[in-house]
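Data follows
____________
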Amino acid sequence: MIRRIAILLLLATVSGAPAATASELPAMGEPVDQVLSPRQEAEIGRELMVQARRTLDLNHDPEIAAYLDGVGRRLAAHSDSTPVNGYTFFVVRNNSINAFAGPGGYIGVHSGLILEADSEAQLAGVIAHEIAHVSQRHIARSFARSQRDSYATLAAILAGIVIGSQNPQAGQAAITGGIAAEQQRRINYTRSNEYEADRIGIELLARAGYAPSGMTEFFETLMRASGPGGSQVPEFLRTHPLSQNRIAEAASRAGALERSDQRSDTLSFQLMKARIEAVYSDQPGRLHDRWRLREPTDDADRAAAREYGLAVLELRLDQPGRARERLDELHAAAPDNLHYGLALARALQASGDADAALATWEDTRALHPESYPVVATGHQLLLGNDQADQAVELVTDYLRGNGPIEPGAWRLLAEAADTAGRPGRSHEALGEYYVRVDRLEQALTQMELALEHAEPGSTEHTRLSTRVEQVRELRRERLASNPLGG
């Protein structure tokens, strides 16, 4: 159990792995791969996400998730190195200002950091920095420098640090219980990691078309927040320590790559920043009152984001008429905007105009046919209008698409199939969802239930029997390949 906890705690400490300088980066086949191969690193990262999904308060809003994933993918497409299983970007619902890179390309961003950023380029700067930690394999390089440490010992160190983030005394006991202080120091961030991640991250920003100054602008914001008069040191600075020299060097490098055609901010960023605050607020009424009293701004995107955020809050406050008025105006000015179209469809549905809601949603779907947020909203609208069979068809079409598939779509299919009175299909879809989030025991249970609903000797029964065996084999492979012993 402590090993499993250790994987999760690695989320908070992965940025603490020491590394050699850039010139010492080992090539494939050198000691780092003998200690922790890319595939082993990917397996650790996969297990980390299993625990993260069970333990952390992860974002489940499709629009927020799709937005962050889009920014991450835009940056990752320009990286010189890609993890075995590619990159996974996700939002953690947490007000602290933090971000982290896990082994194997799992990158998390706290919602508090998104709210603190002032532009998309600033957010992209943080993500690019974390991508650089992954691409340079700082964790594996740390392990290579500590070859005499067993995986169990490393796991125990990580467990102590993670536990310590919740209970310092218990964490200290876990670390010091038979683990030397020198071992603890090995997983702390070093100056070379940070400078290397800055350099590569800034280059990534420029390649992806972002203003590279976004990274240094955000660093300067954090330094001001933690300086004289700052309430406390942001969590990001605890794991990514800054200095004036480091900021100056990053600013110099960014300045050399700055171009007039690079992206600094987007309407999407401002909308999602407003959405995060509105969706996550535990006092939507007070937030609504505060936003209504804000001074007008000459920035069109920020003004639109304020109106959009107010509409999201009004939907939460059961005021769909007010939300509809705001969204009608926003949607009329930008009918191709995904977020306006989906919000307006939800407002129309909440107002009791189901036909108009579906028509608005269909228009949005035609403009964004492969969007998971569109599918998730359509699923909600169709089930709300007693059209479960149509919801099954909608999600099934999405799952057959050629673009990236969001695992949550399988869960939507399970719900729609269950509502449509198709229990076998529902169990199968839920099983496929569990496969994709690496909960293989639950996946097997659901697949076996689906098999019970199939007619013996039928094509469906044969297909499901084969799938059950495939999942069993996958479970055996995962147990055998886990570097930390499962």
